[in-house]
């Protein structure tokens, strides 16, 4: 029986390994992590992450050919294929701080693999890493090799949170990069054999190591760039009376452009887009390509500008002050169908409003109170950031209340701010909400989810990103 071990039981490692276990009953899959609480949660009824369809897969496989454990060394030493899916956040200190990827977790995993391995291993980069990381990993592994053959593969993950399970079942492509040596080719084939259990072979593409590593950064940069492009257009729409949804529709019908990822919003979030573009910027700078770096910087600057613009529009619409006013925040996660709040635009928007002394009443169906309070209390690392964020002061904590119901959150509020496109926000009883609010009642829709005309008929003053403004 082939044995797989995945180091890192996070948003990528957990779902990816659960799907491999489901699709490959003849493979034994161990997911290991240094976080005891995370592993306990994976072994309980309360999984550590919310992802549609995940619980079903885990329940089917757990204890059969899927195991979650903190015994990292044991499972690594027994495995034939080791995926490394640890976090690779942006460095906050030292060389490259604010841009470069922090590979501390990766390096420590690689050193541990080198220390405990007694047989040949295929080591797979599942984390998103800077191009050329495999070269560094090879050095660490082969230096300690004791005659063991380590083959490094790059197999970046393209799943999107919120649709992780369906993305894993039916990926657009699986990318495998490896060395062009006989051993390298053998390792590529072994990993291909795993995916071929359910992925059509024409969707499994093989490249050299550096192309695979760079393709992941490139894909995220292109996706984020599309969002910043449409968001830049949304500002122009508001200034001219054009409607961003109509513009996106017209532009997206061009088959060279396509309709996906053209929704205007308050800005992109999530743990990957900003971090991976910063990483790309750093790599460009290190390779003497400042003009290319500047091109990608603009994607982040427009994203920051969009959040600032949204806060400013809200405050200016509410007669230039929100001091003491209750603002209901609907949605805190960075997108629907996830509880993940890493880099969510909601943090920046809430902090902007708290800075103007608003009272916030926050509701998100998947984000618990402790997580929201923790997110708002943390100081964000600033990179050329136009919103000057401060950690929430003890007095600001009193300005925030978290509720478990949209009606409770909006009761007695002066304005509603929609920051995540949860389906339930489309179907709320807005007449009931309007009746229980202070007047004039405002709605600021950062995701273009509400029917603007219907709300205006009820009596709301509505601002929707990139849409014609209320007369
Ligand atoms: P995560 O923070 O949810 O999970 C990483 C896990 O690795 C943590 O539980 C941590 O405790 C564990 N870990 C760190 N060092 C370890 C070690 N030495 N031994 C054992 N466990 C260790 O991160 P994530 O969102 O799953 O992302 C992982 C990687 O995948 C990142 O490089 C990310 O950029 C990339 N990625 C993420 C997504 C996404 O949507 N989240 C999508 C594609 C790629």
UniProtKB/TrEMBL annotation:
This chain belongs to the protein called Uncharacterized protein
């Amino acid at each position: 029986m082939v044995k797989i071990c995945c180091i890192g039981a996070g948003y990528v490692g957990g779902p990816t390994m659960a799907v491999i276990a489901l699709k490959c009953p003849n493979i034994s899959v161990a997911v290991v992590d240094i976080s005891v609480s995370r592993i306990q949660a994976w072994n309980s009824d309360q999984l550590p992450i919310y992802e549609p369809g995940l619980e079903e897969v885990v329940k089917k496989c757990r204890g059969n050919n899927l195991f979650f454990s903190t015994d990292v060394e044991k499972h690594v030493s027994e495995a034939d294929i080791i995926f490394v899916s640890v976090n690779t956040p942006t460095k906050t200190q030292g060389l490259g701080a604010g841009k470069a990827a922090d590979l501390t977790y990766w390096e420590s995993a690689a050193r541990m693999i080198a220390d405990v391995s007694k047989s040949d291993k295929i080591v797979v980069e599942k984390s998103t890493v800077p191009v050329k990381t495999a070269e560094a990993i090879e050095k660490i592994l082969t230096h300690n090799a004791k005659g063991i053959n380590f083959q490094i593969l790059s197999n970046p993950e393209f799943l999107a949170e919120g649709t992780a399970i369906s993305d894993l079942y039916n990926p657009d492509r699986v990318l495998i990069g490896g060395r062009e040596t006989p051993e390298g080719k053998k390792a590529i084939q072994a990993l291909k054999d795993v995916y071929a259990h359910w992925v059509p072979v024409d969707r499994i593409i093989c490249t050299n190591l550096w192309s695979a590593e760079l393709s992941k950064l490139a894909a995220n940069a292109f996706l984020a760039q599309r969002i910043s492009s449409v968001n830049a257009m949304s500002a122009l729409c508001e200034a001219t009376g054009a409607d961003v949804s109509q513009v996106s529709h017209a532009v997206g019908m061009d088959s060279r452009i396509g309709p996906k990822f053209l929704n205007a919003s308050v800005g992109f979030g999530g743990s990957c887009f900003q971090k991976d573009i910063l990483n790309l910027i750093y790599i460009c700078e290190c390779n003497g390509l400042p003009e290319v770096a500047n091109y990608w910087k603009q994607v982040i600057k427009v994203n920051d500008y969009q959040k600032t613009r949204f806060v400013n529009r809200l405050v200016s619409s509410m007669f230039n002050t929100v001091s003491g006013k209750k603002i209901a925040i609907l949605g805190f996660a960075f997108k629907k169908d996830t509880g993940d709040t890493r880099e969510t635009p909601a943090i920046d928007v809430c902090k902007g409003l708290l800075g103007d002394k608003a009272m916030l009443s926050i509701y998100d169906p998947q984000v618990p109170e402790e997580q929201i309070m923790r997110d708002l209390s943390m100081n964000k690392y600033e990179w050329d950031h136009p919103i000057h964020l401060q950690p929430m002061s003890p007095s600001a904590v009193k300005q925030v209340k978290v509720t478990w119901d949209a009606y409770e959150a909006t009761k007695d509020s002066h304005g509603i701010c929609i920051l995540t496109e949860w389906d339930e926000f489309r179907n709320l009883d807005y007449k009931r909400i309007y009746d229980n609010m202070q007047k004039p009642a405002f709605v600021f829709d950062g995701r273009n989810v509400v029917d603007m005309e219907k709300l205006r008929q009820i009596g709301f003053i509505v601002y929707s990103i990139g849409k014609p403004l209320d007369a």
